[in-house]
Request: fold
Amino acid sequence: MKRLIGRILIALFLIILSILTLGPLVWTVMSSFKTSGELMLQPYSIPAKLQWKNYADAWRLGNFSTYFINSIIVTFISLLLMISVSSLAAFGLSHYKTRFNHPTLLYILFGQMISAAMVIFPLVIILQKMNLTDSYIGISLVYAAGGIPFSVFVLSNFFKTIPQGLFEAAQLDGCSEIKKFISIALPLIKSGLATVFLYQFLWVWNEFTIGFTLIRSSSMRTLPVGLYTAVFGVLQTNYVVAFAGTVMVSIPTFIIYLVFQKHLVKGMLAGSIKA
Amino acid sequence: MKKTIQERYKLKWFELFLAPALILYTIFWAVPILSTLSFSFTNWSGITPLSQADFVGLKNFKQMTTDPIFIQSLKNNFQYGIVMVLVVPPLSFMIAYLLDTHVPFKKFFGVLAYIPAILPSVVVMLLWRWILNAQYGLVNTLLRAAGLDKFAIGWLSNVETALWAVTFVSIWKTIPVYMILALAGLQQIPVEYKEAAIIDGANEWQRIIHVIIPSMRGVFYTIFTLIIIDVFRVFELVYIMTEGGPGYYSTEMLLTYMYKTSFSSYMAGYGSAIAATTIIIVLFITALNMKLSAKYDEE
Reply:
């Protein structure tokens, strides 16, 4: 009897949990397919007919087509830069033992604790001084820089797991340092690269504070910034289209998450437990 | 002699491999951090040239102690923080434990449960602004359906409830992160520990309290540290949900207030002092944490 009650309680708990987690999401997706009238009158029903028009409207009216392209460009440049320089640095830190290793790691890691909002004002000034305001490269450089601490930390932990013997053997064969990095080390830490990619994609793609503050012209907005301004602007009263926009912003996030989700825990263990 | 050549060689490659990351990181992350700290000693407006600003020493920090809005933000930030610290770790552990031990398809549910954490903050705020909307919101529709009309209020537009509503949404978005961390911790506990306790006749509660929680001390420690740091970094969610309002700064946090003073009130020096305060707090907690965990490792 006691067992049964326990099981019912657990089932109940899980049901509540699922509703709390997924309810809002399912409801957003449903709302994005309704007409405005339907949303007001029957907010919890299944849409009578799928209103794909909302998505077309968001794409054109809400200008999401531009935002999408901007987000793709910015995410691509930032991640490429961030992951290349971070894997080089992480390899350097784990492969060459010098007296600068520890201070360098500390210097890089202290940036991990700092959030974008804490440095947003100087960032605006620095980009202005460098004439990089409102440019893809300007904002991407900031994202790449902000992602370095986590990436270097995770990647150097992965590099450390490579047995030194491999490099010594390569050394005897006259393998250059660059070649050691590219053809021995990198292929062995694919899973580390995937972990970093997952976390940093989610960060850059979803990022609001830096984008919102550094981007001035509407044609340069990334998706989260575009969605925010649209919701308080052109789509203020057009909720169903706003919901369609919301779903569109989230789809790439979902895809990347589902493809790379098995790397989630690895990143968390590598990146946070000892941070 | 040979050793120094080898050492020089190593140092050369160390520098070459680190240079690109260090240059990028220094210009676009470390310099901004140091700039925030140095601007905090000036009375710079943020729009006039910096050279026209004066060095004012600790004046900005003194001003904070008598600024009622700053004090209000600090209070809100503390209330928010205390609720987060009290609610998130136990709930995350509870969910992780149930997922680990009592749920079929735990991998599938684990993947689902993490979804709130991957969503952009803008999406989360939109979703919840709507759900908590006074007139059409999901919450109030349900309350009215249950005959609880008097509780159907504008959760985010009411001075009394806004901070709680913001905190709730933050909990909703944060729990999955720590749940996954707790889950990873649970799975690292050697099976023998649990089995030994079962053989000893311990029931589930006893096992949780005497075996599982003590062997996850390290994970809990990490979870608490990360939450405390995150509490002082709270910005995005509050800024986009309430902008610090309604009423008299009822949901204002340290960094949302910093944002307003820096960008809207043209008090960049003062704003930087607020940002610097959060930087110092966060770095202090981190340093303390490193010291304590070094000690913990020795034991």
